[in-house]
């Protein structure tokens, strides 16, 4: 199984200190930062909306979240932004997220009828490709062709749309299915993951761990990051 990668979800961070929060996580041992982009269509909420008033960088960017990601990219040199695109029409935002410094573009299978075309667009902009499934989508919806064209598969363990929800245990079997089919692929879990739920995720075979409230609300985030990492790597 690939090694552990911890990707704290900045949705749970202090947005007024976004760059500092990301830097704090990297210093605490996180490899990636998970950027949740919501458009108000694919999911009801909007995050990292497109007209952030205090952001003066790259004003031409129009993707949901892109101006904010561009600010973070500039403020935290070398950051790996794991962009979770909870958006309709994911093909529309590939260029803006790439311009903003996104390193991985993860779109939802439910949001497109032509995942291979979306993957081609992402590859053309030299970003890594992630394909996400929501709780009601079976793992079999990810065909071998799509999985083999992707770098990472994301199994949502809550319904996409907001942080701080309860972990859905029933999604874990999908991780195990995918790990059996794709032994070398990065498999990410997202939603309600923390020290209390990591055992099931790691045992099923996920290696990319997203955690928002469990990390940012902890008195010592670096301890939580270390625990999550050690559980996956043992
Ligand atoms: C939910 C988001 C998650 C969320 C995770 O729609 O995709 O990334 O921020 O937050 P926690 O870890 O608090 O469930
Ligand atoms: Zn997410």
UniProtKB/TrEMBL annotation:
InterPro entries noted in UniProt: Aldolase_TIM (IPR013785), Ribul_P_3_epim (IPR026019), Ribul_P_3_epim-like (IPR000056), RibuloseP-bd_barrel (IPR011060)
Entry binding sites for substrate: 9, 84, 161-164, 192, 212-213
UniProt-listed Pfam families: Ribul_P_3_epim
Domain of life: Eukaryota
EC top class, as a word: isomerase
Binding residue positions for a divalent metal cation: 34, 36, 84, 190
Family recorded in the similarity comment: Belongs to the ribulose-phosphate 3-epimerase family.
Protein name: Ribulose-phosphate 3-epimerase
Species this protein is from: Mycena alexandri
């Amino acid at each position: 199984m690939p090694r552990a990668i911890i990707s704290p979800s900045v949705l749970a961070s202090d947005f007024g200190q976004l760059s500092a929060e990301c830097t704090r996580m990297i210093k605490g041992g996180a490899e990636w930062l998970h950027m949740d982009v919501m458009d108000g269509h694919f999911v009801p909420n909007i995050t990292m909306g497109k007209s952030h008033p205090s952001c003066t960088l790259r004003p031409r960017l129009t993707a949901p979240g892109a101006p904010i990601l561009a600010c973070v990219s500039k403020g935290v040199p070398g950051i790996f932004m794991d962009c979770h695109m909870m958006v309709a029409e994911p093909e529309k935002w590939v260029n803006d997220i790439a311009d903003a410094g996104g390193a991985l573009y993860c779109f939802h299978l439910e949001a497109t009828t032509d995942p291979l075309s979306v993957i081609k667009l992402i590859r053309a902009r030299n970003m890594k490709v992630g394909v996400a499934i929501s709780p009601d989508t079976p793992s079999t919806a990810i065909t071998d062709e799509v999985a083999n064209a992707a770098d990472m598969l994301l199994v949502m363990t809550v319904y996409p749309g907001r942080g701080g929800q309860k972990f859905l245990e029933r999604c874990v079997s999908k991780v195990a299915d995918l790990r059996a089919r794709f032994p070398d692929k990065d498999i990410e879990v997202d939603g309600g993951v923390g020290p209390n739920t990591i055992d099931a995720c790691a045992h099923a075979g996920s290696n990319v761990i997203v955690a928002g409230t469990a990390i940012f609300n902890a008195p010592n985030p670096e301890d939580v990051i270390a625990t999550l990492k050690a559980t996956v790597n043992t």
